[in-house]
Structures are given as structure tokens and as C-alpha cells.
């Protein structure tokens, strides 16, 4: 096991910045997931830790030793790639044991180590096969075995599951989680799949445009996104955003001049443009649209996904989505949607940063876990 310290790291490709100043600590034995859209710089960051890319500025240390100029093989990292990168002419056993052979380990000891790792990964019966005779999941397991064989201090995973079909992805994800529980090897896992990120991470890092937007436990990041970008990126259907303006009392006034949450006050100047946001799963249909916390809503489309129901409709000219538990019976009379104070988020229109109300309502944790882990809906984006 080893810790990684990343300070003020920048990467330029020619004059194009890919990573624009990252500070991050990966603690010993932790599983950190870096999540972000395509092109945000997450693979570049991982490759700089591995030593496969030079660092333009800043410093990366592993276990207290600056490794900027240390060659990849001497950093104690093993990397698992998206495309497996297996040697096609070698058997599974040879692929897994190759690094030990190169290191000069005697045959008997090597075979014993390969057998043990193959056992951990359920590959015992496939040791004599070539990669072309394996399924995608089996190949990925061999790639894992090859990374594990030298007992590295750090595992680096670059979207290792993205070539697998949905079912295998889940299986391999659980396997990686089980392996991490057993081995406790410090791991950094790059993905753009939020289900993978939410389920694997001890600590989640959301990146955007070469910068870190937020670091925290998956639940923290999901519950309290600190920017509009993170709020919009995590969750499916995505969060709903309603344009609003701060009134004289500090309350949020929507485009239709309603102030549904009179108890929520922000310490912002009158006229400040904000966006009020809420998760689709935080809204509940209610009849009678006059009480506090209730918005007028008219469903334009209803999607029954089996596991839940999605309503799409408009609130004050903005399209919003509502996610309801399967079997919810919708009112037969006109209805609104209720959003509790504690489910309301707000972001400054000018830069998307989070602004909390003066009194922060308690968060209802019951709704969070269920929503964050709702596999089917999350994986659909
Ligand atoms: N070798 C390279 N030469 C020039 N530009 C590069 C190179 N590698 C990456 N980039 C650019 O750097 C930026 C970050 O790329 P990177 O591969 O790190 O993103 P990513 O978040 O991992 O994306 P993806 O999920 O699509 O792999 C992108 O704009 C990309 O085009």
C-alpha cells in the first residue's frame, strides 16, 4: 500500500491545457474514483501518476518520494487498461506471470504465485488458454491478475470496464470491490460512469475541464453538490434547475413570481440571479397547488420504467422531470409537485457555485441512499 500526493499539477499538450492545477491526496489503502465527462483530463492525470506522461508543472509524490522523474516501472504502480493490453501469443498463465519472469523469479515460485492469483480471480481452469479464447470479462480478469501479480502498492484503473456488456460490468465491478476489500491496495479508478463511481469509491473526485470540481464521499457529493456542474452531472434523470431571483427578504422568487419556499432565505443582494434545483426523486405529486413547497405541474409525458415512473412536465415554463416509485398512483385531478425545504439546492447563475440558505434544513437521508443507488436509472445516461 502507498499514498499519493498530487500538488499543483499541470499538463499542457503543446499549448492546450489538459490538466490545469490539481491538488489531491490519495490515502493509503483507499479507493479513489475520478469521474468526469470525456476530455476533462482524468486519464491524463492517471497517466501522470503512472509515469506514462510527463508533468508540465507541479509535483507527484508516492509515499513521500517525489516521482516526477522516476520511470514508470519504479513507481510501484500497476495499471489496468480499458483494452486489457494482453500479449496475444501468451497463455493466461504466461500473461499473468510475465512480469515475474522478467524480474527473474524462479519457475516454481512463479507458478505458485500465478496459481494463487488465478484462484483469487476464478481463472484456475483457463490458465492454458490464449486471450483470443476468452470472453471480455475473462480477459479483464487476466489483466487484473497481471496487475496484481507483483503486489504493487498502487492500482491504477483506466476505464477498465467500459468494453464489457452491462451484465459483465456489474459482475466485474463487484469483483473489483471484493478484491479491494481483501487486498486494501491503494487504488485510483478513472471512469465516466457514475454508477461505477458511486458504488466503488471511498472518495469521489469530480473533474471538469482540467480542474477538480469536488472531492468527497459519494454520498456527500451527491447530497451536497458544490457546483451546478456536479449537481447536473450526478444523478439520472439529472437535477431540475429553475431560474429564480432573490427578493427583498432574501427569498427565491421563480419566473412565475411564486416564492414556494418562504422559510428559505439567502444572504444575497436583492435581484441576484440564482437557480433553484431539486432532484427528480425529491418531488412528490400533491393535489392543491397553493401551500408552501408546492409547484404547479402538468405532466406532458409519463414513462413507466417498471422499477419507477418518470414524469416530464413544465414548472413555470421550465421542463422538469419527476421520478416516482413504481406503482405510484397519480391523482386524477390537477396536481402540483411538492419539494421539501431540505431538498432544495441553489446555485449562483453567474458562476454556478453553490449557495446555501442562512438556515440549512436537515437532509432527509432516507431518500438519498435509495436514489443514489438506483442502478437502472443511473446507468441509463
Ligand atoms: N497525446 C495527446 N496530445 C494532445 N492532446 C491530448 C493528448 N492526450 C489527451 N489530449 C487532450 O487532453 C484533454 C484531456 O484528455 P484525457 O484523455 O485526459 O481526457 P479524459 O477525461 O480521460 O477523456 P476520455 O474519458 O474521453 O478518455 C483532451 O482535450 C484531449 O484531447
TrEMBL record:
User: Which keywords label this protein?
Assistant: ATP-binding, Cell inner membrane, Cell membrane, Membrane, Nucleotide-binding, Sugar transport, Translocase, Transport
In the UniProt record, does the keyword Lipid metabolism occur?
Answer: no
**Protein name stated in the entry:** Sn-glycerol-3-phosphate import ATP-binding protein UgpC
Which family would the database say this protein is a member of? Belongs to the ABC transporter superfamily.
Q: Do you know which NCBIfam families this protein is assigned to?
A: PRK11650.1
Q: Which SUPFAM superfamilies match?
A: MOP-like, P-loop containing nucleoside triphosphate hydrolases
Q: Which residues form the ABC transporter domain?
A: 4-234
List the Gene Ontology MF annotations in alphabetical order: ATP binding
Keyword Cell membrane on entry:
yes
The source organism is: Nitratireductor thuwali
Amino acid at each position: 500500500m502507498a499514498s499519493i500526493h498530487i500538488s499543483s499539477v499541470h499538463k499542457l499538450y503543446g499549448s492546450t491545457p489538459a490538466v490545469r492545477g490539481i491538488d489531491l491526496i490519495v490515502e493509503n489503502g483507499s479507493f479513489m474514483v475520478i469521474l468526469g465527462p470525456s476530455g476533462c483530463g482524468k486519464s491524463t492525470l492517471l497517466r501522470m501518476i503512472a509515469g506514462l506522461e510527463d508533468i508540465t508543472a507541479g509535483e507527484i509524490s508516492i509515499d513521500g518520494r517525489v516521482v516526477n522523474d522516476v520511470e514508470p516501472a519504479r513507481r510501484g504502480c500497476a495499471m489496468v487498461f480499458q483494452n486489457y493490453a494482453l500479449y496475444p501469443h501468451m497463455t493466461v498463465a504466461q500473461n499473468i506471470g510475465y512480469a515475474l519472469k522478467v524480474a527473474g523469479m524462479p519457475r516454481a515460485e512463479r507458478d505458485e504465485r500465478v496459481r494463487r492469483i488465478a484462484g483469487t480471480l476464478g481463472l484456475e481452469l483457463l490458465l492454458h488458454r490464449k486471450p483470443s479464447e476468452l470472453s471480455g470479462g475473462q480477459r479483464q480478469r487476466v489483466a487484473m491478475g497481471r496487475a496484481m501479480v507483483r503486489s504493487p502498492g498502487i492500482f491504477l484503473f483506466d476505464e477498465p470496464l467500459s468494453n464489457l456488456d452491462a451484465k459483465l460490468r456489474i459482475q466485474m465491478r463487484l469483483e473489483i470491490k471484493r478484491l479491494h476489500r481483501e487486498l486494501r491496495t491503494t487504488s485510483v479508478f478513472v471512469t465516466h460512469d457514475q454508477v461505477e463511481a458511486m458504488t466503488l469509491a471511498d472518495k469521489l473526485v469530480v473533474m471538469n475541464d482540467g480542474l477538480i470540481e469536488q472531492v468527497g464521499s459519494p454520498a456527500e457529493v451527491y447530497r451536497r453538490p458544490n457546483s451546478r456542474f456536479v449537481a447536473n452531472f450526478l444523478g439520472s434523470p439529472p437535477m431540475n434547475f429553475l431560474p429564480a431571483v432573490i427578493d427583498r427578504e432574501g427569498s427565491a422568487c421563480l419566473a412565475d413570481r411564486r416564492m414556494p419556499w418562504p422559510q428559505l432565505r439567502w444572504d444575497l443582494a436583492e435581484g441576484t440571479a440564482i437557480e433553484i434545483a431539486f432532484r427528480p426523486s425529491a418531488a412528490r405529486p400533491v393535489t392543491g397547488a397553493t401551500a408552501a413547497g408546492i409547484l404547479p405541474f402538468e405532466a406532458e409525458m409519463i414513462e413507466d420504467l417498471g422499477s419507477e415512473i418518470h414524469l416530464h412536465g413544465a414548472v413555470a415554463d421550465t421542463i422538469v422531470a419527476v421520478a416516482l416509485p413504481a406503482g405510484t398512483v397519480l391523482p386524477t385531478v390537477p396536481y402540483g409537485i411538492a419539494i421539501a425545504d431540505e431538498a432544495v439546492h441553489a446555485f449562483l447563475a453567474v458562476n454556478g457555485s453553490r449557495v446555501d440558505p442562512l438556515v440549512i434544513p436537515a437532509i432527509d437521508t432516507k431518500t438519498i441512499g435509495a436514489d443514489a443507488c438506483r442502478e437502472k436509472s443511473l446507468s441509463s445516461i
